[in-house]
From TrEMBL:
It is found in: Cytoplasm. Coiled coil: none annotated. The gene is argJ. The active site is at T190 (nucleophile). It catalyses: L-glutamate + acetyl-CoA = N-acetyl-L-glutamate + CoA + H(+); N(2)-acetyl-L-ornithine + L-glutamate = N-acetyl-L-glutamate + L-ornithine. This is Arginine biosynthesis bifunctional protein ArgJ.
Amino acid sequence: MKQIPGGVTAPKGFRAWGVHCGVKSKKADKKDLALILSDQECAAAAVYTMNRVKAAPLYVTMEHLEDGTAWGVAANSGNANACCPMSHEYAEEMARLAARATGRAPADFVVASTGVIGQTLNIAAIRAGMPEAAAGLTAGPEGSDAAARAIMTTDTVKKELALACSIGGRTVTLGAIAKGSGMIHPNMGTMLCFVTTDCAITREMLSEALREVVPRTFNRVTVDGDTSTNDMCAVLANGMAGNPLIEWKDDGYTVFLKALRQLCQELARAIAGDGEGASRLITCAVREARSEESAERLAKAVVGSPLVKAAMFGADANWGRVLCAMGYSKAPFRPEYVDISFSSAVGAVAVCRGGMGLDFDEEAARSILSQDEVVIDVHLHEGEHEATCWGCDLTYEYVKINGDYRT
């Protein structure tokens, strides 16, 4: 497995671009319309938010992917196209505009939106910008870069990655762009992720791989406990790598699954680390649990706790908040067996053993908790299962961002 440049344009046969059309802002440097297109028809699969309130683009995409195929993605930022007049009509119009600009059919496109909920989408801006997005489509890294920036909302950095692996003696590439910073909680967060690959794989196996990976990556991220209306992770596979077609769970599937999981895990970590107002990434690893499900529930409770997040912001080794969060997670464990330690790039400190506090150097702990990534290690001593979840600290800036997000 090797990381390579290029994002969604790294796999063979994919082009992308992003432009400013005026959905998000009048500032010309703020891209807000992205387009991704394959040179060949793709096997396609997607997963969506579990929020009962879903934005119109999700329903349109569900309909378009009923046959398990797609050619591209059309996405805008700056407006969620959710819970507003003409939302479904405008989501369908986005697909028609993308089709008209590329010579494809409307049903060939995944459609996605992200931004403010409840405001009518400026479809006129998208209508004006789509031809420019199509004209700019390029297979170079600059295409992926432009598309990645066009889907950003409160993100402070673009989220883009590509990996290469070998399947059946052929080089297979996976690329992705993602966005996500706030309104993020397990069961997807305010995130969009578009994965492209030149792997030859059936739509059934592609869907199986995506549904196996997402629960262990994107669904293990929490920023603020809110699950959005617009979350989507879609994968397009055009088969142009020329590897033997993956039709069942053979060795090729195992390699592809590992690559997809690594890709999504790195993007999940990037989303957590770029949480709104965040100053550090929090990783919680729960080990030696009775089951993976209970380990995941415990880790999610820890990274989702406002008090743990606030303690991490203050570099305060308040391990009692970790144990407390575990206690209300509803996962089975024995508190008297629990060991807790904090670690980062500068060292580690044990703070709890057997459910009881340990003496430790407060200044050393503060230094450890002041790094860009802090790991909370929890050992339960009850089994052989483990799970890792990701979150971020809770800062003053988070409140500032969300206090006037709409206005």
